[in-house]
Amino acid sequence: MLDFAIFAVTFVVILVGAVLYLYPVSRYKCGVSYLDGNLQDIVNRGSLHEFLVGLHQDFGPVASFWFGGRPVVSLGSVQQLRQHVNPNHSTDSFETMLKSLLGYHSGMGGGPTETIVRKKVYQSAIDNTLKNNFPLVLKLVAELVGKWKSFPEAQHTPLCAHQLVLAIKTVTQLALGERFGDDDAIISFRKNHDVIWSEIGKGYMDGSLEKSSSRRGHYEKALSQMESMLLSAAKERKAQRKQVAFVDALIQSSLTERQIMEDCMVFTLAGCAITANLCIWALHFLSTSEEVQDRLYQELDEVLGSDPISLDKIPQLRYCQQVLNETVRAAKLTPVAARLQEVEGKVEQHVIPKETLVIYALGVILQDSDTWSAPYRFDPDRFEEDSVRKSFCLLGFSGSQTCPELRFAYTVATVLLSTLVRQLKLHQLKGPVMEVRSELVSTPKDETWITFSRRS
């Protein structure tokens, strides 16, 4: 079961038994068995990301390893990603991963045309709900910033807790409608969300979920309750015939009731996690640099003046975009992506057979000194360079290949920064260096605290 649990982290797909023309990790050197492959090595390193860091340090930018008896290819540099021929772009890697972990497979076997259509419906639904509900995003952010303004300047503020609440309120109300404006509904959602996300990110990774019947039961109960809640919300919205929320767009499509529930589950889970952590890391990094805060304030003042931000103004906030891009890079926000090879491909002299799982070791690439100067320094100015922006786009963090949940998170984070930085300054607390937990989304291991002071 451990084999399945860890393999699920990279989409639980059955790989063909083809011989890779690569240099696979030595089983003898890693001390791995024929049946387990490198699974125990991944567990020992603490995460798939940490395993990939060591793998590419030892074997270079193109390497393979073993999930049980199955070979997997990992690419660890921008140059190799540019050479990667014919990856499968018909599905979003993060969405596919979550659906596999959740055991959702409806509509996944209908062929590439059906998959592309469903992907377009999903992306369009997210874009439309942002457009229809942008005033609500402004309202929720204004409430949080107003709360922070009321705090004494020396008061320590917990970033993780506050940003998760903001993300949950924003995602649930935009996804499912006004019923989640009620505190009881939010509390119920968060209770189940926390259990599901924790076990997906950790329990499957180290196999501990399968070893504990009580934890497994707790997880399955939370998942069942969440599914029932989403089905109920969709049924309620269908009866109301409204067309402003994410679920409304899905209802208007040809998706089945089950598919609508699954897409709502993926968006609410991924949307909350990515939005919360993008905001957490952005505010954390801003608190470390008064200069970046001042430059961002200057841009906001020039573009917006005293007006609230609007969707049409967001593209004009170029430095704000650079700050968020650098946040994603420096935090390694989503450290691993993967695609199933659609046709036989090639990287340098290495042939990758059709239907091989190819991992993009994004956490490795995002801090590769050959691609980024001073990779461990937070420096939004690096994104002034066209070559850097192109590399970032190639990694799937901007442009047409950006996952829709990340685009949603960028919008919410831009509203947050544009509201906050014009009113308050952020200050970092002295203390231990923040440690990172790299799972499906990188998040601080412990609560992160900052203080605020009013802008004069």
Automatic annotation (TrEMBL):
Give the CC-aspect GO terms: membrane
Q: Name one GO molecular function term.
A: iron ion binding
Family matches, as Pfam families: p450 (PF00067)
So which cofactors does this thing need?
heme
UniProt keyword annotation of Metal-binding present: yes
**Which terms are listed as keywords in the entry?**
Heme, Iron, Membrane, Metal-binding, Transmembrane, Transmembrane helix
What Gene3D superfamilies does the database record attribute to this sequence?
A: Cytochrome P450
- InterPro entries according to UniProt: CYP450_20A1-like (IPR052666), Cyt_P450 (IPR001128), Cyt_P450_E_grp-I (IPR002401), Cyt_P450_sf (IPR036396)
Taxonomically, the superkingdom here is Eukaryota
Residue ranges annotated as coiled coil are none
Q: Per the UniProt record, which residue ranges are transmembrane?
A: 6-23, 264-286
Chain positions recorded as heme binding sites: 403
Protein family (similarity comment):
Belongs to the cytochrome P450 family.
The protein's name is Uncharacterized protein
Q: Which organism is it from?
A: Mola mola (Ocean sunfish)
